[in-house]
Amino acid sequence: MITSSYSDTAGQAPEHIAIQTETEQINYQTWNRLVNQTANWLGSLSGKPKNIAILLPNEIPFLQLFAGAAHAGCTAVPLDPRSTAAEFADQLHISKTDLVICDRRLSGRLNGVKTPVILWDECRSCIEAENTEGAFIKNAGLPFYTGFTSGSTGKPKAFTRSHRSWLESFSCTKREFGISPDDKVLVPGTLRSSHFLYGAVSTLFIGGTVILQRKFNPAGMKDRLRQADVLYTVPTMTDALLSAEAFPDKPLKVISSGADWPASSKQALSDRYPHLRLYDFYGTSELSFVAFLSPEDGAKKPNAAGRPFDNVKIEIRRPGGERCMPGETGKIFVNSPMKFSGYIGGAKPDDSGWMTVDDMGYVDRDGYLYIEGRENGMIVSGGLNVFPEEIERVLNGCPGVRKAAVTGVPDAYWGSIAVAVIDGHADVKELKKRCREQLAAYKIPKKWLFSEIPETAGGKIARAAIRKQAKDMMEWKR
């Protein structure tokens, strides 16, 4: 179970700090007690709720409820405070949530929902009155976490993960990233994102110290980064920290995922702070860890997604199912013990062990994976296939571009055309020139828009939102 190490850590190093925030910190003795009490309280509730939604800020109670639910054999369902009332209702319905535990300041967002709601202020004293001892459920196949991912339509889908999947991932974190109990791990992003949630929960399992940031603030993070040994981040955060000159002049492991990190951005960070050790990994909500670049790999193969984690197998397949040759683009299939359990009310991994999320790419002769794009995001323009991600990688390396997103919109002549949405103040002529130097002519966007780019909680481009935004702006321009 993902909480099974807490009692051992509390016994061996009771005063070791488990979690540190801007205003408080707790040691492992206290952490173990809080998790036991929370699990016992959940087990005492009438109706025995199994799916517990959490609507709390990035503070210790969030992790306490998440771990307590897992310890009790329940499934935690983190909710995004930015959601609308209608989105909350959808998320609670598709995740089959029995109970919501909510911060008082956010409770107004849940007006009208049918699921029972308890305020954290009201249950805290009940939890603290519970028995401090607790026996965890010993079934690693049980689900413990429900998250949400958007399909091509933008409608949320709920996925579940078992304890076993994250226990396998914890082993990768220790082995490939070298995280140890001595490390202080800074988690500056929302715990609603599985990337940052994983960073915190894996650190607690390993016995390190989690440094929680209530809200990401690049200019205000210099002191926190000086304290940290490891930083979990996404590319947009990393670029913001670089612009704010927030990184310390000391060794720091930087673990990045959630979106494509341009090689030019990595190089700029390494040039300015050569003592940083950069780890970049490719994974998805469904597949978990797939491939990673160590600092040494990044120097040799800066444009690769990485080599497979030790417990992961990758195959690139043609449409007929045959395996591709090295360098040949096809659909990426993954076989791994870290896969999700399935979508609630939807598809689950089959018995073969192999699974795809329709990402396209290729493997080079050295076994490194390269991502071309997602099949269902592919733009078919004039009968030719165009991957938005390939164009975005070029545009994100251009001066004046903070972030680029490419999407397809319908066109009477071409069928679809590529539209580039640019967050920044770049010159379109220069952007086209850079594209001509690095891309085939048919891949160059035919329309250019300037706007902020919507993102998911994990720092990825919100593809459905950007498609609608581009389509609306194109219609308005007509």
From TrEMBL:
Keywords: Ligase. It comes from the Bacteria. Pfam families: AMP-binding, AMP-binding_C. The keyword Ligase applies. Coiled coil: none annotated. Residues 390-460 form the AMP-binding enzyme C-terminal domain. InterPro entries: AMP-bd_C, AMP-bd_C_sf, AMP-dep_synth/lig_dom, ANL_N_sf. GO terms for molecular function: medium-chain fatty acid-CoA ligase activity. Residues 9-343 form the AMP-dependent synthetase/ligase domain. GO terms for biological process: fatty acid metabolic process. NCBIfam families: PRK07638.1. Belongs to the ATP-dependent AMP-binding enzyme family. PANTHER family: ACYL-COA SYNTHETASE, MEDIUM-CHAIN ACYL-COA LIGASE ACSF2, MITOCHONDRIAL. This is Acyl-CoA synthetase. It comes from Bacillus siamensis.
